[in-house]
Amino acid sequence: MKVGIVGVGWFGFQPEVVDYSFREMMFKAAQRAYQDAGGLDPRSDVDAFVSCQEDFWEGIAISDEFAPDPVGGAMKSVYTVTGDGLQCVGQAYMMIKSGLFDVVVVESHAKPSDIVTLNDVMFFATDPISVRPLSLENTHALAALEARAYMDKFNVSEEHLDAVVEKAHKAGSKNPRAVYASPGRSRPDTPVVADPLREADIAKFVDAAVVVVLASERVAKSFNDTPVWVAGAWWSTEISSLELHDWAFPLHAREAADGAYTQAKIADPAKEVGFAEVDNRYSFKELQHIEALRLAPRGMAGELLADGAFCPGGRLPVNLSGGALAEGVPFEVHGLARLSYAVAVMRGDIKAQVDRRETAVVHSWRGVPTTTSTVAVLRI
Fold first, then answer.
1. Per DSSP, which regions of the chain are E strands?
2. Sorting pLDDT into bands at 50, 70 and 90, what band is 131?
3. C-alpha–C-alpha distance, residues 298 and 353, integer Å
4. Backbone torsion region of residue 14, taken as left when φ is above 0, otherwise alpha when ψ lies between -120 and 50, otherwise beta
5. Is residue 326 over pLDDT 80?
6. Which residues pair with 362 in a beta bridge?
7. CA angle, 112 as apex, 33 and 83 as ends, to 5°?
């Protein structure tokens, strides 16, 4: 049984959404998704709802108690997942593939502007015995260590990071929700945060909500004439101890990609994938993730990017949206942000510089200090 995306709605993507609570943001995104799905009625047309969120980001224990009402799921089956929104898509994919559900709604939301002690919250997720006693003033230092390990092992230069940042801001200038896009921004002119990472290497946070409607092949075209099919979805968590996981290469992203490619029957991603949306909340992570998704050999993404292979109009465009460096990071919404942009490109809602839009791969990572990635393969 095929699973299709029949509706997408989003709200926010602003550094601070002042006039709406996170519940109201969820409601607005849901309204737009249901309208996009042909005027779907959540009370009668939806079999189940899945919400991806993390209590720490809300500052509220059992925050999933707020999930049902804003999306029309009161008194209906609502499942909650502590993970990235793309993981929720994987859950919905499995639910529909089981044959027990025809329509499942996926939701994720974020309001980082409400968090006063964001660095402390992020640091609290680190190992309480081996890392937290270090009392790091900036959790980006952990990413900086990974960046240095990757750059040293694969001979990646600062110029390669410059190219990632330049590409992200240039592409983001054509994305209406890329509030941080600043074409012409020079990475070397920004201050060092934690060597080798500069301010321009690190994506800022953004408030956002995204809702996605998935449906079985049996009913999909009753909601939307142009569904985008989920050909594969997989996620993986590498060992969580920072001392033991591979610092130079994201094995979790490789494992998630291989699982999704197997489901989608993709043998050579570099040739079969038309474009990709990958996690680039740090500039070096875009290069790492391109390689982990087998879109380039290990250590070669930087050189191929310099040759224009991953630029808009290139052989295999990556992050036509500008990614997180241009849009910002909306916590667990990030995977749905990448997914929603890819869907819009594939449906032709966005006129992007891409020659092949029939097959796309979408990737998201949960960020420092996690080792969890999710990958979805989309087709039209």
1. 3-14, 48-52, 78-81, 103-110, 192-194, 197-198, 207-216, 228-237, 275-277, 359-365, 372-379
2. confident
3. 26
4. beta
5. yes
6. 277, 376
7. 65
pTM for the whole structure: 0.95
Checking phi first, is residue 218 left (phi over 0); if not, alpha (psi -120 to 50) or beta? alpha
Whether residue 130 has pLDDT greater than 90: no
Please give the C-alpha separations between residue 312 and each of 169, 306, 309, in angstroms, as whole numbers.
Answer: 12, 13, 9
HSE-up of residue 358 (Cα within 13 Å, Cβ side): 4
- CA–CA gap between residue 320 and residue 36 (Å, rounded): 22
Q: Where does residue 133 rank: exposed (0-12), middle (13-18), buried (19+ CB within 10 A)?
A: exposed
Computed from CA positions of residues 341, 256, 86, 178, in that sequence, does the dihedral angle turn out positive or negative? Answer: negative
- What's the rounded Cα separation, in Å, for the pair 242 and 368? 10
Contact 197, 143 (CB under 8 A): yes
Supply the Cα-derived Rg of the chain in whole angstroms: 19
21-71 pLDDT, tens per residue?
A: 999 999 999 999 999 999 999 999 999 999 998 887 877 777 778 889 999
Task: Yes or no: say if 50 and 26 are a contact pair by the CB < 8 Å rule.
Answer: no
Identify which of 360, 321, 351 has the alpha carbon closest to the alpha carbon of residue 208: 321
* Cα–Cα nearest to 211, from 328, 70, 74, 61: 70
Q: Are 203 and 216 in contact (CB under 8 A)?
A: no
**pLDDT at residue 188 tops 90:** yes
Q: Report d(CA 48, CA 289) in Å as an integer.
A: 32
The per-residue pLDDT for 69 is 92
Identify the band that residue 261 occupies on the pLDDT scale cut at 50, 70 and 90: very high
Extract the tokens encoding 164.
């990632």
Place of tokens 């569904």: 227
**DSSP notation for 210-250:** EEEEEEETTTGGGT-SSPEEEEEEEEEE----TTTS-SSS-
Q: Cβ contacts of residue 176 below 8 Å, gap of 6+? A: none
Distance set, CA 172 to CA 13, 55, 169, 184 (Å): 13, 30, 5, 11
